[in-house]
Amino acid sequence: xxxxxxxxxxxxxxxxxxxxxxxxxxxxxxxxxxxxxxxxxxxxxxxxxxxxxxxxxxxxxxxxxxxxxxxxxxxxxxxxxxxxxxxxxx
Length: 90
Description:
single chain; 5 helices
């Protein structure tokens, strides 16, 4: 799994992924992506890379380097956050 996808998962979950069920999320996501069509996999990875690049441009650090709490805070405040749901659900 790429650093961009790992960083996005950590930021979305606001968890370092070192204990309990969050630790297995990257492995399960790899399995899910493997079952998807190639275009879908590439699209997901491209989107994760775009979010990661945007984080690097805005903060000087990639998502996997921001740490889960900071990454989640960054995502909530970014224009990339979905506008269809209240930020409290993020």
